[in-house]
Design brief:
CATH class of the largest domain: Alpha Beta
Order of helices and strands: HHEEEHEEHEEHEEE
Number of strands: 10
Number of domains: 2
CATH topology of the largest domain: Rossmann fold
Strand order of the largest sheet: 1-4-9-10
CATH architecture of the largest domain: 3-Layer(aba) Sandwich
Shape: globular
Structural class: alpha+beta
Strand content: 15-25%
Radius of gyration: 18 Å
Largest sheet: 4 strands, mixed
Distance between the termini: 23 Å
Length: 212
């Protein structure tokens, strides 16, 4: 499970169903240390991928989702962990509200997160910017608001947030290009062809869309 606000509400419902015995024999895995605490408090017993190699279901939110159900994720800093979990799961359910829907990846102008190793991070940042010059990319190191120091994620790495003013183009081409710099660990820009079911909450209720 991830940790966006919609997923949090969902896990509270899971917790309620487990306590009432409507849902039993469920084991959870969280993609980050803070989310582990949340799972332990609200949901089922916590496990890990070394104990359970295949997951039945992953439930996540998203920062953006395009008409083809390609995602932008990772603003919380769990890029690599989330992708590892999604590769191990049979089904991936994404829960968002209508504000997350975009015409194309990058359309919301919100941050696109890239996980990099801390060594030589400024060079990597410049390299990432040069890859997306045509999209007027502006890269920024993710820092802690309290002291301005680099935000170090659970894996011990940094996050570079990329901001685009224009469409970045073909996703699979961009996916390959952004993964090539040696310091790049992973990115949350395109979770391509991974979503099984999309649930969109809106003023008129929820809409459910399944992968064809």
């Amino acid at each position: 499970m991830g940790g966006n606000s919609v997923v949090v509400v969902n896990m509270k419902m899971v917790d309620s169903n487990m306590k009432s015995k409507h849902l039993q024999d469920m084991i959870s895995y969280a993609c980050g240390k803070k989310k582990e605490l949340f799972v332990l408090y609200y949901a089922s017993p916590l496990s890990d991928l070394d104990t359970h190699l295949v997951l039945d279901l992953a439930i996540y939110g998203a920062d953006e989702i395009d008409p083809d159900m390609n995602l932008v994720k990772g603003c919380g800093g769990s890029l690599r962990r989330e992708k590892v979990i999604e590769v191990c799961c049979k089904k991936l359910v994404v829960i968002v509200d209508e504000t997350k829907l975009v015409d194309y990846v990058g359309g919301s102008r919100l941050a696109m997160s890239v996980e990099i190793v801390s060594f030589c991070w400024k060079f990597t940042t410049q390299k990432l910017q040069s890859l997306f010059e045509e999209a007027d990319c502006v890269p920024k190191l993710c820092v802690l608001p309290k002291n301005g120091k680099a935000y170090v994620i659970d894996n011990g790495n940094f996050i570079i947030n990329l901001y685009f003013k224009k469409d970045i183009g073909g996703l699979k081409v961009v996916d390959d290009a952004i993964s090539r710099p040696a310091n790049v660990v992973d990115h949350g820009m395109m979770f391509i062809d991974m979503v099984t079911t999309l649930i969109v909450a809106g003023e008129l209720g929820a809409r459910v869309r399944n992968k064809c």
